[in-house]
Amino acid sequence: MVTDVHAHVMTHNIEGGKRNLLAVAERFGVDRYYISSIDDTYYPNEAAIENDNLVTYQFMKEQPQLIKGYVYVNPRHDNKMDVLKKGIEEQGMSGLKMWVATHADDPLNYPLIEKMIDYNKPILFHTFIKAVGQLPYETTSYHIGRLAERYPEAKIIMAHLGGEPYHAIRNVAKYKNVWIDHSGTLVGSNDLQHTIDLVGVDRVLFGSDMPITFAGAYGQVLECKLTAEEREKIFWKNTAELFGEGF
């Protein structure tokens, strides 16, 4: 079994994105995707957010066994709490997706985090640190660490191994409420093993960042020095336990 905790449908290619996810599921035996739909705008307006979440919801309805959703929220919008409530309570989404509109520990996020604690559902944060091209409000592992310290009850997923795991993982290793996905990390062959060596397997989640290649992420897990039981934890068991949705 394989569960992909971090995949996307890009709204400029909705049908192509869906077909790609379905084809990969058949080829690699993916039993579940947790997806968010995002557009080409770093700071989407309210109409774009509504459309993004509608795309996710429609795919969930089309493939209820395979597709679970994150509600995507721009914390700068006045209607952010209404968007969250609709996504979780009406559309049946499983978590909250946060991209690059705010740093994770921005006070604008606090009401959303507190509501997600009430819902007992995870928050997935795009997390990256770059030598060049860092976006103004792009979350790093430092922001994740500060948020985890403030809200120890929150279920936080730090995506992409923090973008550079050789210091990012150390920033969050002590926080038991932070899980780590390795989606979109296709450069360093030892990055995932380094993460496992620091935090163990129980807080590591399989993610691809599709439409970025699934095969690369899959191969990274196979390359690590793991027992069959440890590999199962990363491929699906840790995610099933975190979300509490079973199969």
How would you characterize this protein structure?
The protein is of the alpha/beta class and 247 residues long. It contains nine helices and eight strands. The chain has helices at 14-28, 46-62, 80-90, 110-119, 141-150, 165-172, 191-199, 214-223, 228-243, and strands at residues 2-10, 30-38, 67-72, 95-98, 123-125, 156-158, 178-181, 204-205. An eight-stranded parallel sheet has the order 1-2-3-4-5-6-7-8. The termini are close together. The relative contact order is 0.14. The mean pLDDT is 96.
In short:
The chain is built from nine helices and eight strands. The chain has helices at residues 14-28, 46-62, 80-90, 110-119, 141-150, 165-172, 191-199, 214-223, 228-243; strands at 2-10, 30-38, 67-72, 95-98, 123-125, 156-158, 178-181, 204-205.
Q: What proportion strand?
A: 15-25%
User: SSE string, helix = H, strand = E?
Assistant: EHEHEHEHEHEHEHEHH
Q: What is the share of helical residues?
A: 40-55%
Question: Which term fits the overall shape?
Answer: globular
Total helices: the number is 9
- The low-pLDDT segments are none
Radius of gyration: 16 Å
